[in-house]
């Protein structure tokens, strides 16, 4: 099962320019021609995105798997093109900012919240080729550039892009999980924060699409990936905690004027041949978008705590929405974004709880009629520190003030949570959940009955200290790394 989770993060061995030989976790590529149709299967679908009932964006769904369902490739370079125009303002790459000198991928701009300079007002977004030699300086354009951007030296082509060298297409969509040549590990194990290209000026909110229990429980112990036994806690090279859940495969672009027509996902793969020669092969898929189709706006449900660690909420799937998630993120006492997001606050869950990182819960929504759903009382991180698999001691899902005061201090309030509702008209849950099942399909269905894959996302709302009062969330800065989980107003 741990190997399968590594596959989700695309840590696979590959005879490729950015990772050769056996992969981590016992996962390997079994083909000398990784782009052969008999080995790699690329799927691609597009749809509209209803963002909070305020904006329209583009939803992208993709998979790239080998026959056993694991990620087909360890490193690739994606390009998405079609009848759209990127309207989000261009930003420098994350590594071009002086304070971020030494960042593992100096070419990616999405970590900094936007497209690259050469993608602005264009109809394609892409990654940076794996053939760009390590140590090549990041740059945006030849000649004059706006303040904050970097002009390319003579003889050097612009190389900053949305996805940089870290972003690729894997078993469940786009992730910054390309393998780093000198370590054999992925740049990052965390999904991209969504939506892409958040407009800070408009105070929009991003979320990390981690799937948690009860909907995503890979080891069957009720605690998702936070049991502290099957997966240990840690941070990847981007500074992001890894495996806080299962990646849900959500890729949504804001700041993009998407029009009807044919879209293309092209995936370039560079391989090393005999004698060290390098060749690049591109595989691609097309998908059609009807931009007039838009799913209804979702209303964020109110979570009603039961005083024991769990609680209930009531929600219905509106017309056209066939399945959904209610995401409940426990940030710990005083840790919610609206409250300024205290860094890693201790709560009653112990060392594997919010003192390490927010705890993600996902409830699958399946009913068209208004239905009351329940978050169980005790599916929080394992509080036992000894005994291994023989000592799984669940903690409260969301700590009450009394539970925190018994474990932390007499003045500690209850946990802050963020609630958000996400709806789909395609089998998003089945595609993502298949990666943690005994048998994983190579080509899971990713298109709805209408021929495309549409998504609708509600406002995120914060509830503090056991209250049912909701505060809609906004941000004015795009955080990264550990601070990603301390979103600032």
| Helicity range | under 10%
Major sheet characteristics: 9 strands, mixed
Tell me, rounded to a whole number, the average pLDDT: 88
Instruction: State Rg.
Output: 22 Å
The proportion of strand residues reads: 15-25%
Polypeptide structure, described:
This protein has helices spanning 2-8, 401-407, 428-433, and strands spanning 41-51, 55-65, 77-81, 84-86, 124-126, 168-170, 173-175, 210-211, 246-247, 251-253, 256-258, 261-272, 278-289, 304-305, 311-315, 323-332, 359-365, 371-375, 416-424, 455-457, 461-463, 471-472. The protein is mainly beta. The radius of gyration is 22 Å and the shape is globular. The two termini are 38 Å apart. The relative contact order is 0.17.
What does the secondary structure layout of this molecule look like, with pairings?
Elements lengths: L1 H7 L32 E11 L3 E11 L11 E5 L2 E3 L37 E3 L41 E3 L2 E3 L34 E2 L34 E2 L3 E3 L2 E3 L2 E12 L5 E12 L14 E2 L5 E5 L7 E10 L26 E7 L5 E5 L25 H7 L8 E9 L3 H6 L21 E3 L3 E3 L7 E2 L17
Parallel strand pairs: 1-20
Antiparallel strand pairs: 1-2, 2-10, 3-5, 3-12, 4-11, 6-7, 8-9, 12-13, 14-15, 15-18, 16-17, 16-19, 19-20, 19-21, 21-22
List keywords for this structure.
489 residues, mainly beta, 4-stranded antiparallel beta sheet, disordered C terminus
Short description:
With 489 residues, the protein is mainly beta.
């Amino acid at each position: 099962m741990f190997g399968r989770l590594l596959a989700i993060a695309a840590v696979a061995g590959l005879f490729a320019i950015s990772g050769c030989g056996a992969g981590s976790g016992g996962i390997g590529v079994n083909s000398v021609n990784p782009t052969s149709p008999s080995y790699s299967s690329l799927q691609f679908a597009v749809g509209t995105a209803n963002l909070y009932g305020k904006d329209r964006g583009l939803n992208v769904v993709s998979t790239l798997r080998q026959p056993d369902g694991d990620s087909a490739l360890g490193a690739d370079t994606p390009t998405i093109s079609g009848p759209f125009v990127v309207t989000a303002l261009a930003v420098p790459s994350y590594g071009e900012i002086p304070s971020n000198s030494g960042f593992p991928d100096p070419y990616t701009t999405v970590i900094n919240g936007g497209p690259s300079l050469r993608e602005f007002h264009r109809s394609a977004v892409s990654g940076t080729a794996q053939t760009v030699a390590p140590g090549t300086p990041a740059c945006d354009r030849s000649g004059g550039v706006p303040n904050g951007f970097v002009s390319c030296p003579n003889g050097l082509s612009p190389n900053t892009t949305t996805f940089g060298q870290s972003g690729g297409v894997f078993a469940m969509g786009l992730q910054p999980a390309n393998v780093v040549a000198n370590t054999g590990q992925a740049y990052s194990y965390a999904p991209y924060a969504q939506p892409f290209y958040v407009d800070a000026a408009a105070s929009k909110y991003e979320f990390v699409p981690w799937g948690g229990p009860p909907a995503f429980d890979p080891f069957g112990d009720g605690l998702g990936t936070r049991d502290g036994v099957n997966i240990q806690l840690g941070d990847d090279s981007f500074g992001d905690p890894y495996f806080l859940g299962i990646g849900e495969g959500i890729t949504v672009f804001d700041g993009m004027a998407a029009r009807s027509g044919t879209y293309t996902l092209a995936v370039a793969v560079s391989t090393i041949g005999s004698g060290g020669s390098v060749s690049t092969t591109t595989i691609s898929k097309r998908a059609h978008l009807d931009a007039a189709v838009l799913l209804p706006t979702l209303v964020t449900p109110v979570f009603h705590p039961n005083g024991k660690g769990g609680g209930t909420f009531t929600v219905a799937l509106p017309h056209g929405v066939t399945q959904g998630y209610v995401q409940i993120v426990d940030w710990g006492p005083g840790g919610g974004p609206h409250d300024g997001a205290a860094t890693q606050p201790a709560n009653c869950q112990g060392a594997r709880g919010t003192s390490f990182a927010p705890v993600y819960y996902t409830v699958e929504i399946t009913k068209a009629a208004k239905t009351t759903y329940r978050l169980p009382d005790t599916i929080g991180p394992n509080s036992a520190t000894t005994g291994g698999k023989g000592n799984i001691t669940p903690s409260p899902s969301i700590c009450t003030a009394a539970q925190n005061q018994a474990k932390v201090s007499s003045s500690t309030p209850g946990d802050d949570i963020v609630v958000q509702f996400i709806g789909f008209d395609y089998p998003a849950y089945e595609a993502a959940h298949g990666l943690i099942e005994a048998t994983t399909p190579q080509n899971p269905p990713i298109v709805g009955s209408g021929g495309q894959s549409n998504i609708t996302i509600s406002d995120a709302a914060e509830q503090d200290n056991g209250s049912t009062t909701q505060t809609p969330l906004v941000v004015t800065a795009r955080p990264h790394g550990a601070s990603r989980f301390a979103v600032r107003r």
